[in-house]
Amino acid sequence: MSNADKRIFLSPPHMSGEERGLVTECFDTNYLAGVGPMIDRFEKEFCELTGHADAAALTSGTAAMHLALRLAGVGEGDEVWTSTLTFIGGVSPIMYQHASPVFFDVDPDTWTLSPHLLEGELSRAAAENKLPKAIVPVDIYGQCADLDAIRELAAAYEIPVILDSAEAVGSTYKDRHAGKGADVAIYSFNGNKLITTAGGGMIASDDPDIVQQARYLSTQAREPSNHYEHVTFGYNYRMPSVCAAIGVGQLAILPDRVAKARETFAQYEAELGKLPGISFMPEAATGTANRWLTVMMLGAAAGAEPLDICEALGSHNIEARPVWKPMHLQPVFRTARHVGGDVSKELFQRGVCLPSGTDLTPEDLTRIIGVIKAALSS
Ligand SMILES: Cc1ncc(COP(=O)(O)O)c(C=O)c1O
Questions:
Q1: Which residue from 32, 50, 145, 317 lies 20 to 30 Å from 335 (Cα-Cα)?
Q2: What beta strand segments (E) does the chain contain?
Q3: 105 lines ligand 1 (CB under 6 A)
Q4: Range of the structural domain that residue 110 is part of
Q5: Probe residue for ligand 1, chosen from 87, 94, 136, 327 as the CB with the greatest number of ligand atoms within 8 Å
Q6: pLDDT for the residue numbered 35
Q7: Does the pLDDT value for residue 374 go beyond 90?
Q8: Domain count of the chain?
Q9: CA–CA separation, 338 vs 91, rounded Å?
Q10: Residue after which a domain boundary falls, among 206, 231, 252
Q11: How many angstroms does the Cα of residue 58 sit away from the middle of ligand 1?
Q12: pLDDT (tens digit, 9 = 90+) per residue, 336-369?
């Protein structure tokens, strides 16, 4: 295949090269699995980045959310309130805990959980004595939710805020890293994220007890004894050392990856943003998004639908996808309660995620933009 038609993925893993040596260290010391210096180092360096008191490395962001919900005491009959515009990995754990998700529409200016909707629903639920057990805002596509506003509302009812920052490693909210300031934050290092551990996640908090409990539950809830003693059940959720080694290498180049993703966003916007009906995901005034994925919006004047763009790019061996389909529109959640209007639905119907890999070359970008321009003018 020539370079002109090589496959361009939406957001592939992008190694710096240093990861290989760190993985070799795991082989040399024979610390390959869920204990050892590389895990400790990854957690420590992650806390240095985010400012959290402690963090535990896990097999996935989904696992991190599961532990966060269980540690918040979420169980059968409880409601968990979250943003409808998200990926199911942050929502399935609500089902694992036999609780009920309630899906909130998002703010059109940020695409994140609307504090305005939350305020109204909290006072209504308080009057009916039906407050949620936890509130889970989502930092979507690396855009941080308005955490301080949400925390203030939640604190009035003593409801914990678990922030789904799965997509927001490297983003900032005010002067903090994404997730810092929530009761608990979770992150993903899945292969499609801005930085990856091949597969993995992190739970982080300023309360070291929560993180310690998460470590305990993630390693089958073993009591400190020579034999296998259990007073509760746990999970096999601990990140293997070889994955942590990749994570240590990736953390070192995170600022470069954020800069590149933001530059790619700016280039798409400069080339396409003035065409009729075309706009791009807004950036909240409260932070700096990592621009994990560049999202382009197609208004009526664009004369094309997201699927047209995906198909045109697909026919040139280029991967693109619609915006997340809101959870309240998913068949699996057809009976779940939905709060608010149709902003998320509109974003799904009008938005397309463009290739945003940090290894995109100028030639790749020219190729992608050329296909989009042709599709828009046809
Ligand atoms: C918003 C959101 N929440 C949760 C997850 C789950 O993370 P993981 O894939 O590591 O389980 C993801 C992504 O993959 C995500 O995008």
A1: 145
A2: 54-58, 79-83, 100-104, 134-136, 162-164, 172-173, 176-177, 184-188, 201-205, 278-280, 287-288, 294-298, 321-322, 337-339, 351-354
A3: no
A4: 18-252
A5: 87
A6: 86
A7: yes
A8: 2
A9: 14
A10: 252
A11: 12
A12: 999 999 999 999 999 999 999 999 999 999 999 9
Report if residue 10 sits inside a domain: no
Interval 119-138 mean pLDDT: 97
Check if 197 has its Cβ closer than 6 Å to any atom of ligand 1: no
Nearest-CA residue for ligand 1 atom 5 is 89
The residue type at 186: I
**CATH code for the domain of 175:** 3.40.640.10
pTM, entire model: 0.97
Measured over the CA atoms of residue 223, residue 227, residue 233 and residue 236, the dihedral's sign is positive
Please tell me whether residues 96 and 131 are part of one structural domain: yes
**Residue nearest (by alpha carbon) to ligand 1 atom 3:** 90
* Same-domain pairing of 185 and 296: no
pLDDT at 1 > cutoff 60: no
Residue with the two structure tokens 């399935």:
92
Q: Which of 82, 139, 188, 197 to mutate to test the pocket of ligand 1 (most atoms within 8 A of CB)?
A: 188
